Amino acid sequence: MKILEREIGSIDFAENQTRTLPLPRNYAYRCLNLLLICQLDREAGSEGGPKDSCPAQLVKNIMIRANGRDVIKNYDMESLHRLCEQRHHVRPYIYAEDFSGYGAKTNSVLKVAARIDFEMWDAVRPIDSLLDSAGLATLELIVTWGTGLDVMNDTFDGASVTVDSAQLFVSSVEAVGVPPGTAFMTNKEYMIRSQVTAASAKHQIQLPVSNLYRSIVLKTHSDGDQVDSILPFSLTNQNTITLQAGTEVFKYRIAGCLQADNRLDCEMQIPERTGSAAALNHRLQELLQEGYYVLEFVKDGRLTECLDTSKLSSLDLILDVAHPGTDDFIDVFPVELIRPAVEAAAAAG
After folding, report:
1. Which residues contact 24 (CB under 8 A, 6 or more apart)?
2. Which runs of consecutive H residues, i.e. helices, occur in 22-172?
3. CA gap 209, 191 in Å, rounded
4. What DSSP string describes 203-238?
5. How much is the pLDDT for 279?
């Protein structure tokens, strides 16, 4: 197979509106690359600040839909930006320091990038999950735009953030010359949101069963900011994450210890935190990816290690949670691999 890289097009900002970009249906997609550029004005406030990975919040939702009904990807750009950091071992491009703080800003030009992966990252055979578009009736990138104030956290008290202009640029990397009859697994991603309304040692989130799980990522956020305080870790608090089916436990981790392991396993360098105005030095301090917890099943790149839920009747996350803010949420981002129809039938039999 040969590699084709091309610019697909761009989508212009339309506040709180949904816009669709048809994608070419010639070859097998390895990935789509996204780059958002915008110009913002901000009226001064007295507290608060931009959310993590601002201005990614302008892109409130990203969906890849095939054949008018089959949703393959469904998430927000803020989360996708950080998921890419985990998967590709470096933070994607972001240029937004000018918008830090809560003061007045005029004509601030901000940029942030992300990647929609179809090929499987950190796998022995990444091409096993390419998206072959040749046989599809339609293939669409559907973007739901937010508002200017979406880029600021809940404590920001300024009157407005104005989007002068914004544009999302889309390019692709595709494989040309896929042998006829090749059957790929589908790399499906989506988000499940659970609100935390009280501290609980048994906060339960139910997950779908029937497919393979490559990984499950948890994101904790409070009042618009990523935080570790929903799953705190200290000398007095060792809150835990458990993944189980009935009495069978697949993962049982102290949340803070899992984050420390994620830093090594995902090879991340994190000199900044959400609320910091600048990167820290590396002499005596290396940080964790704030508010993110990666439950990984594939440790050596072989997709045979995925968690097979085809014979499970249930799958639950059981979390020991605190309730530090007013609006506390846990977002769950599963990565499911869906076998080709023939292979799935054989596995079920």
Report:
1. 8, 133, 139, 172
2. 77-88
3. 15
4. EEEE---SSEEEEEEEEEEETTEE-STTS-BSSS-B
5. 58
Asked if residue 55 has a cis previous peptide bond (ω within 30° of 0), the answer is yes
Residue whose token pair is 């040692």 = 201
What's the rounded Cα separation, in Å, for the pair 146 and 59? 6
pLDDT digits (tens, 9 = 90+) for 215-231: 999 999 999 999 999 99
Distance CA 214, CA 187 (A): 9
What pTM was estimated for this model as a whole?
0.94
The Cα–Cα gap between 100 and 94 comes to 13
Dihedral (Cα; 150, 153, 155, 161), 10-degree rounding: -40
Residues near 28 by beta carbon (within 8 Å), at least 6 away in sequence:
1, 127, 130, 131, 132, 133, 134, 174, 175, 178, 184
Contacts of 304 (CB under 8 A, 6+ apart): none
Structure confidence at residue 341 (pLDDT): 64
Inter-CA distances, 155 with 96, 102, 152, 166, 326, Å? 19, 10, 8, 24, 11
For the segment 13-28, the average pLDDT, to the nearest whole number, is 98
Contacts of 210 (CB under 8 A, 6+ apart): 309, 310
Which helix (H) or strand (E) segment is 260 a member of?
A: helix 255-265
Give the number of other Cβ atoms within 10 Å of residue 19's Cβ.
14
In the predicted structure, residue 120 carries a pLDDT above the cut 90: yes
| pLDDT at position 270 | 80
All domains of the chain in start order, with CATH: 1-184 (2.70.9.30), 191-349 (2.60.120.730)
What is the per-residue pLDDT across 227-254, written as a single tens digit (0 to 9) for each?
A: 999 999 999 999 999 999 999 999 999 9
